[in-house]
Amino acid sequence: MKNESMIRNLFSKHIIYIGLILVLIYQIFDIILNYFVSGELQEGFSNFYQSRGGKEDLLRFFVLLFLFLFFGKFCGKIIQEHREVQEDQLRHMNELKNFANAVIHDAKNPAIGIYTMAMLLRKKYDEIIDHEGKHYLDIMEQTSKDIVKLMELVNMFIRSRECKLSIETVNVQNEIDIIQESLSPILEIRKIEWHQTPEIFPQIRGDRLSIHRIFRNLIDNSIKYGGNDLNRIIVEYQETDEFHVFHVCDNGSGIDELDQENIFEIFSRAKTSGKVEGLGMGLAIVKELVTKHNGTIKLTSSLGKGTAFIFTISRNL
Q1: Alpha helices in the chain (DSSP H)
Q2: Which of 72, 196, 296, 308 could disulfide-link 249, Cβ–Cβ 3.0 to 4.6 Å?
């Protein structure tokens, strides 16, 4: 999308010159049709040159040819400019990615060190640390874990944008079964029913790890933010001529309409999430992975009535 935007910007910048080139092409083509193809040269080039208007049209032809070559060179300049813009953007993206990786690495290590130190203090001085001191240690440990988790999620978000897909035949049902089995303890404890339509999902073309992550993040999102009233999760499949269409629905708390517009943006969290821990990156990662599969994602939701995420995967991968 960014490359298409750059191309549009470059051509809009030089639209006048491009228009002139098209006019030149039309004029040259018109001369060829009128004289070189019309049969007026059948009596020889000399007769054509001496014919009425022949000199003027021949001169016009060579002038237009010269201008066409000149503007052709100008088009080459536009292409070179576009290539330089692409290379510059790629260089900046690589610099930003390297910077992000360095920050992730440098931030995780101190956080892990703080967490370890807090645990050691608790273990060694547990008998003499008062209640308030233990509370501070709890905060240190939790904050350290949050930093590490944030760095891991940022790294996952970067990889979801940068890594190329490994397209293969994916057994979607197998991925769903793995997710359901891993979540079965919490589903049982919270008495959440699992429904699926159809009973067996088809195999599709896509990146297996990405598709697994999409379903896992959406289902985790339902369990995490569905609230105490959540008692049903529904996973559905449909298809069109161009897309595989999946629905992940729940009957939980729902998302306020004002929060829905930016819900897929990085670090965006719905107000209804309340005190539930989260960093607002799960749905941003889902959107990136769906987009890389040439699909789209949207949601329908209302407070107290649940949420439905609908995403598509292209059938032409």
Answers
A1: 2-13, 15-31, 45-50, 54-125, 131-162, 172-189, 208-225, 257-260, 282-292
A2: 308
Length of the chain: 317
Domain identity same for 81 and 208: no
Tokens of 117: 């130190």
Which H or E element spans position 239?
strand 232-239
Are 174 and 234 within one domain?
Answer: yes
Q: Clarify whether residues 132 and 192 are in a common domain.
A: no
Same domain, 155 and 175: no
In a shared domain, residues 157 and 173: no
Tokens of 200: 């067996």
Cα(143)–Cα(149) distance, integer angstroms: 10
Residue that finishes a domain, picked among 108, 137, 162: 162
- Say yes or no: 171 and 25 in one domain: no
Which of 162, 196, 225 is the last residue before a domain boundary? 162
Asked whether residue 124 falls in the same domain as residue 174, the answer is no
The pTM assigned to this predicted structure is 0.57
For residue 171, the one-letter residue type is N
Token pair listed for 57: 């049209």
CA dist., res. 148 & res. 308, Å (int): 30
Both 152 and 178 in one domain: the answer is no
Q: What is the DSSP string of 113-168?
A: HHHHHHHHHHHHHTTT--HHHHHHHHHHHHHHHHHHHHHHHHHHHHHHHHSPP-EE
